[in-house]
Structures are given as structure tokens and as C-alpha cells.
Amino acid sequence: xxxxxxxxxxxxxxxxxxxxxxxxxxxxxxxxxxxxxxxxxxxxxxxxxxxxxxxxxxxxxxxxxxxxxxxxxxxxxxxxxxxxxxxxxxxxxxxxxxxxxxxxxxxxxxxxxxxxxxxxxxxxxxxxxxxxxxxxxxxxxxxxxxxxxxxxxxxxxxxxxxxxxxxxxxxxxxxxxxxxxxxxxxxxxxxxxxxxxxxxxxxxxxxxxxxxxxxxxxxxxxx
Amino acid sequence: xxxxxxxxxxxxxxxxxxxxxxxxxxxxxxxxxxxxxxxxxxxxxxxxxxxxxxxxxxxxxxxxxxxxxxxxxxxxxxxxxxxxxxxxxxxxxxxxxxxxxxxxxxxxxxxxxxxxxxxxxxxxxxxxxxxxxxxxxxxxxxxxxxxxxxxxxxxxxxxxxxxxxxxxxxxxxxxxxxxxxxxxxxxxxxxxxxxxxxxxxxxxxxxxxxxxxxxxxxxxxxx
DNA sequence: GGTGGATTAAAACGCCTGTTTGAAACAAGC
DNA sequence: GCTTGTTTCAAACAGGCGTTTTAATCCACC
Lengths: 223, 223
What we know:
Distance between the termini of chain A: 75 Å
CATH topology of the largest domain in chain A: Tetracycline Repressor, domain 2
Order of helices and strands of chain A: HHHHHHHHHH
Oligomer: homodimer
Shape of chain A: elongated
Radius of gyration of chain A: 21 Å
Strand content of chain A: under 5%
Low-confidence stretches of chain A: 217-223
Number of strands of chain A: 0
Largest sheet of chain A: none
């Protein structure tokens, strides 16, 4: 009875990795079973068919996904610190998706781009809470803004972060591998946070040197 | 001899549409041939195999793609007008990708996300010129900025625009179909342009109402 | 040791895929 | 009218796919 659960778990793990990097259509059941050291009939026995296995893999992915970093944003902090913190955690997850062991987030991202029947729970329990959290943070900057504006602001934040995951292959060809690697978590967090906070009038905008210097020391600058 | 070119063209068109909306792996040769009213053997006769057909379709897509809107950005205009113009045209193309007849841009986007052997010419002749154009515009705002900052700024602009294409399915589930439709070309162009220009210190930032009002009329505004 | 349900294993089943075949249809030159 | 080269067509091919079948194996319980 233990061993049955064991192969079921191994199948779930292998399926998650395979689905995450190849998608539902291109993932092969035989490959999943080889990874899991299981027989092809095992997926039918434990899950029924390929689609039910996929759904279980997505649910498993989002089961371990959320939670910890929900409280990463200090509710007592100021709105600018909250936004910075949100961007850092979101971007950290996005950049970490490159890691081969992080199939859960890659699978979730895949579900976001091509929602299937498995994405209802995903949206309800994982994506929407974060989206509402971001909107709540932005609401503190624009308490009187219409909802449409708040949606657009949220998408501006998310879009900038996700772009570094989506466009990585093309970015490497555009600015080179070393150019992409120069855009690490610390730099990008600061860049995007400053970009957004400047757009919201909290932080001074980028100057001619591409820096955002605090107001106080901007009285008389030579050169 | 004319009819041969005719079925070749029909195959190219049908293949473009099919590859654009299903990808290389999931597109079916038989479906392409049905669309093109051609026999399955025709693709082998005219192109050799599926991959060569795909490459030809990508090249065909980018052949008609670029050109006209390169000059859409007035070189004599101010940098803020140039950026606004760039965003409007880029966003216009992104949003127009939903249209079923615009398989060329969808196919190019697919190549951007998963570069194949067909994407060299695409990057060289279509993507890099636009990327350099955007960086040149941004350079006018930050003439002394390091290259890394300029890359990040460019990605901030592009990322915001592309997000509305990538995340449309999930956006519809988050804010509803009417919520997405409220984010039309005019609103988004103005939103993203204002967002970026405010971050660059050109335009006043979003205020509490989520608006970016010109400085002059911001002296005494009640409620 | 035998029994019965749960789990695994090998092989086969249709089905669909991209590709190829060999013949038919067509147009042009002489 | 025949040949020549090009283009189309229906049919078949080999291979991979998800799934199913059937038998073997395991393991707790009596």
C-alpha cells in the first residue's frame, strides 16, 4: 500500500516536470513513465487517462506553491515598501522558474497562458489573491482611481516582471547572454520598483544618467 | 505552371494560419492541406517536409511584416512624442494579433518565444531594428545612462505592451471580458505612455485619482 | 499454505502522424 | 499523336501515440 502511493507520487512528480517543460500535447506518457520508473499502464491505473493526470499535476503544483510568500508583504509597511516587496517576491519567482527543479511554477505559468479545466482552482486560490493583493497596494497610491486604471496599473507591474521570463530566449539573442545575466534579481527589482514608484510620483524619476536619486541631494549637481 | 505557384501560395497561407495558432508541433499537415484545398503530397512536393514548410511560412510572415511602420515614428518629433508613437504602433500590432487574419504577427511572436532555425533572419531584419529604435528613443531621455539601464527601460516598455497579448486569457478570468475590453488601444496607449513618461520625469505622475494632469492646472484642485 | 484484493508488467490494440509511392492528369513542343 | 516534364491524387507506409487487455506479482489476512 505504501509502494502504490510511492509510484503515484513519482508519476505526479515526473508528469509535472514533463508537462511543465513540454506542455500537455507534447508531453509523452511513455517518457513520464520512464522518468518515474513506472509502467505505462500505471498512469491509467492511478489516474485514468492523460488529462486527469495533467489536472492532478497542476493541482499538486499549486498545492505547494502558495502560502509562504503571501505574508511576505508586511501589512504595516508603507505602500512603497509593500510594492517593492511585492515586486521582489514576484520577480524572484519568475526568475527562479529557469531552475529545472521549479516545475511547479512553470506549470502554473503554462496554465495561465493556456487555461484548461484545471485552472479554475489555480486562479481562485493562487492567482486572484495575489492580483487582489497587488491592487490593494496600488489602491493606497490612487485611492480614488477608477477600477479600470487600477487594473492597468497592476498589469503594468506584472507585465514588466513576467517579460523577463517570457522573452528570455529572444532577449539573449538581442543583448547577449551576458547582457541578460547583468539583469539580475537585485538590479531588476530596484529598476522595476523605481520605474513604477516614479510613475506613481513617490520616487524621483530616472534622470539623464538613468538613475533615480533622492530629492534631497539634487540641489546643485555639476557635470 | 501558374497553378503550381497557386497551390504553393495557398499552402503557405494555410500553413501560416495553422502554425500561428497551434504551433509547429500541434499543427497537422492534413489540416493545412484541407485549408489549402491541396493534397497531402503537395507539401512534400513543393517544400520537402513539414519543417521546411514551417521555415518558409515564417520567412513569408516576416517578409510582409516590417516596413511601413518603421517610419511611423517621426524623427523630427520630440522624444516624448516619439515614445508615444512607438507605444501606439507596437501596442496596436499586439492587440491586432487577436484578429484571425493576422497570422503573420502571431507566427512571429511564436518564433520570438521559441526561436527555431527560422528566427535568425526574423531577429536580424525585424526585431532588432525595432529594439534599437526604441533604445534610441530612450537614449534621448537618458543620454548618459549605462547600456544595462537602457536595456531594462526598453524591456519595461515592451513588457507592458506584450503583457496584454500574453495574459489575455488569464486577464479575462481575473477582471472579466468587459474588463479586458475596457482596456482598448486608446486607453492603453495613453496609460503605458504616461506610465513610462512619468517614470522618466517628463509627464506628471499618476495622482490619487489615477490621472496624470498637466502641471499648470494643478495649483488648487478641490476633491 | 491458501485466498483475495491491490499493484505491476508486457504486449497488443486502434488511431493518428508525417512521409512516400506509383499512377493519373495536365500542358507544351514538335 | 506522341513524347516530355510538371503537377495532382488516392492509397499505403512505418512509426509513435494514448489506451486497454491479460497475466503475473506482491502482500496482508485467515
